[in-house]
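Private note to self, pasted from the team thread so I don't lose it. Backbone tokens:
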């Protein structure tokens, strides 16, 4: 199974005139444009996912919506508290293990740092002490074959900036 980890794009800062809570921070206009350009590249690299699951925070959900459009994903975008930045990465591993046992071909998880970096490190090394942080708008793909170990192989990792250049 291929697991695609995608960090949200550039989001608005908290301000008196804008979002009042961290959970409500949307993508900026530039963040939307830059991520959409990168998502064109990601869509060309990804196999069609069985599921797309996002953190419920606004900036992650908006990022996932853009990616779903570029993927022409026909399923429903799902949300999970297991993908918020404060969730233990092991909870996301449990979700992935269930997908692998259900014989899913691929899944996309859209979320935040430090959660995604810790999850990526856990999937590649088996250790929760080896984070591999993702920059904003970045996508990493991990192939997992064994539900017993849940340790996979990195297939690619692309920054938003490089993906935008490749997508042109």
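Design output:
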């Amino acid at each position: 199974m291929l697991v695609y980890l995608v960090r949200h794009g550039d989001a608005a800062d908290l301000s008196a005139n804008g979002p009042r809570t961290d959970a409500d921070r949307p993508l900026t206009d530039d963040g939307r444009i830059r991520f959409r350009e990168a998502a064109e590249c990601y869509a060309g690299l990804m196999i069609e996912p069985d599921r797309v699951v996002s953190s419920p925070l606004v900036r992650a959900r908006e990022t996932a919506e853009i990616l779903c459009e570029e993927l022409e994903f026909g399923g429903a975008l799902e949300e999970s508290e297991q993908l918020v930045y404060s969730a233990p990465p092991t909870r996301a591993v449990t979700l992935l293990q269930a997908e692998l046992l259900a014989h899913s071909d691929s899944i996309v998880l859209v979320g935040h740092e430090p959660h995604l970096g810790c999850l990526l490190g856990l999937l590649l090394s088996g250790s929760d002490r080896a984070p591999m942080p993702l920059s904003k708008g970045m996508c990493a793909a991990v192939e997992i074959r064994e539900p017993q170990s849940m340790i996979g192989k990195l297939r690619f990792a692309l920054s938003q900036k490089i993906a935008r250049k490749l997508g042109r």
